[in-house]
């Protein structure tokens, strides 16, 4: 992670704060559940957008590369249509799955290793927050 610009580290880690604050809020007020779900969906769609950008920067990108850019947004949308707890679980699975695919892509040189290091930390925090919120609301 040291190879990443300081703003990327700071903004990335700060992006975990809503996950944690909203998840804790779910233990006290169920009304925090939808904002947690909406934030998780936004982040999952953002993860796909990163890969869309990677694909566009490579003039020879295969279809799968663009697919990785689209699928997370579709999963996020479906998660918002589900009952709240199920949606939070789908979002957690979507973020974890995206991290797994990114790890595999990094082995092929398709994802920069400094990005992957930060993403694994951020994915872990996001999944933790989403699961914590789901448990509180179950």
From TrEMBL:
<feature type="transmembrane region" description="Helical">
    <location>
        <begin position="116"/>
        <end position="137"/>
    </location>
</feature>
<keyword id="KW-0812">Transmembrane</keyword>
<keyword id="KW-1133">Transmembrane helix</keyword>
<feature type="transmembrane region" description="Helical">
    <location>
        <begin position="74"/>
        <end position="95"/>
    </location>
</feature>
<dbReference type="Pfam" id="PF11911">
    <property type="entry name" value="DUF3429"/>
</dbReference>
<keyword id="KW-0472">Membrane</keyword>
<feature type="transmembrane region" description="Helical">
    <location>
        <begin position="6"/>
        <end position="29"/>
    </location>
</feature>
<protein>
    <submittedName>
        <fullName>DUF3429 domain-containing protein</fullName>
    </submittedName>
</protein>
<dbReference type="InterPro" id="IPR021836">
    <property type="entry name" value="DUF3429"/>
</dbReference>
<feature type="transmembrane region" description="Helical">
    <location>
        <begin position="36"/>
        <end position="54"/>
    </location>
</feature>
């Amino acid at each position: 992670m040291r190879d990443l610009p300081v703003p990327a580290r700071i903004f990335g880690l700060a992006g975990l704060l809503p996950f944690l604050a909203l998840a804790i809020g779910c233990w006290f007020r169920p009304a925090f559940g939808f904002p947690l779900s909406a934030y998780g969906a936004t982040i999952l769609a953002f993860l796909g957008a990163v890969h869309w950008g990677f694909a566009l920067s490579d003039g020879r990108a295969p279809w799968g590369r663009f697919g990785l850019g689209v699928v997370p947004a579709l999963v996020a949308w479906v998660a918002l249509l589900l009952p709240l707890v199920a949606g939070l679980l789908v979002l957690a699975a979507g973020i974890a799955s995206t991290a797994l695919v990114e790890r595999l892509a990094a082995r092929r040189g398709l994802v920069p290793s400094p990005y992957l290091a930060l993403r694994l930390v951020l994915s872990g925090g996001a999944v933790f927050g989403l699961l914590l919120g789901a448990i509180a609301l179950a």
